[in-house]
Specification:
Layout lengths: L2 H20 L3 E9 L2 E9 L2 E10 L13 H16 L7 E12 L2 E11 L2
Parallel strand pairs: 3-4
Antiparallel strand pairs: 1-2, 2-3, 4-5
């Protein structure tokens, strides 16, 4: 992956985290790597443990960012979330799977938050 794409992705994750915090959520973890996959952000909102996939684009040439979270990616995120929770994180909390689509054009950043984008 090129440095420009990594930078774009980092900017998108920062914007997504700031969005979640603005909604009153607490960021519990970032870039959680598990033996079965990765979760970009884990946030808590009341009794919910929210697993967030962030997709960032600089244009719509290849479609909407959220369109990149297909069934295969959803299964990977669910497996990673299950592993994370089985390690004792979020005991007693209800998992939810959100997608935050970030479009960055220069200094303009747009976040679209799709709550409960998919489920177990």
């Amino acid at each position: 992956m090129t440095e420009a794409r990594l930078t774009l992705g980092r900017r998108g994750e920062e914007a997504a985290a700031a969005h979640l915090v603005s909604l009153g959520m607490k960021i519990m973890a970032r870039n959680v790597r598990t033996p079965v996959g990765e979760v970009d952000l884990v946030a808590r909102s009341g009794r919910l443990l929210v697993f967030v996939e962030v997709k960032t684009r600089s244009s719509l040439a290849f479609g909407l960012p959220e369109e990149a979270v297909g069934p295969r990616k959803q299964r990977q995120i669910i497996r990673a979330a299950q592993w994370y929770m089985n390690q004792g994180h979020g005991h007693g909390l209800q998992p939810r799977f959100d997608v935050i689509a970030v479009l960055i054009r220069g200094a303009q950043i747009e976040c679209r938050h799709i709550e409960a984008a998919f489920s177990l």
